[in-house]
Structure formats: C-alpha cells, structure tokens
Amino acid sequence: MSEKKKFNIEYEIKSSPRILYTFLNEANGLTQWFADDVSVRDQIYTFTWDGEKQNAKLVAIKENKLVRFKWLDDEPQAYFEMEIIQDELTNDVALSITDFATEETITERKQIWDNQIDYLIGVLGA
Description:
Elements: E1 4-12, H1 17-25, H2 27-31, E2 37-41, E3 44-49, E4 52-62, E5 66-71, E6 80-86, E7 93-102, H3 106-124
Antiparallel strand pairs: 1-7, 2-3, 3-4, 4-5, 5-6, 6-7
C-alpha cells in the first residue's frame, strides 16, 4: 500500500462563516451534504454512506473557523480538515479542504470533494 500524501483544495462559498460552520461540525449539518447519516458521541463522529459506517474523531476545532477529523482506521498522520477563510478586505468566504490520499487516488478524491462541495453550496443556497 502506498503512502498517503496531503493535498489541499479551496472553494469560494457565498455564506457567512457562522452559518457555514454549522454545516461542518454539527451532525445535522453534515447529514445535509457530507454523508447519508451522521451521529456524534464523545467527539467520535460516525459517518454513514450507503449503509457503510466510518468513524472519525474530532481532533481540532476553532469556532466559526475550522474542524479537523481523524479517521480511526487510517494512517496515523492522515486527517481531513475543513477551514473557513474570510478575506479581510473583501469579506469573501472560502472553504479550504485538507485531506490525504494515495498518489493514484488524489484525482478521484478531489472529484469527490468537488461533488460534495457543490452539494453543500446547493444546500446553503449560495
């Protein structure tokens, strides 16, 4: 198995950081765009897609700014992070995604994020 590499992608989102943040860290918000179902218990988020469950621990959080999750069954250095970036001059809001994938799957993983973020933008009505 080849080692996972970190990659970053950024999306412009027409939303306030406060509203966007609720879709990144609350189970109800995540269920609307990220997974079919999300439940939380003791900082462990259980994400369900097509009946398959995956558990991730919430390892970092900054209110209205950032959430970082670590998959429990993944490599020690791998995580995925969603950071809200607001331009101080224009107040434009962007969502920066940091994730890990093997060299062979980075393109596919980026396409998955593109689709998920498109869905999020639709849910936000942005």
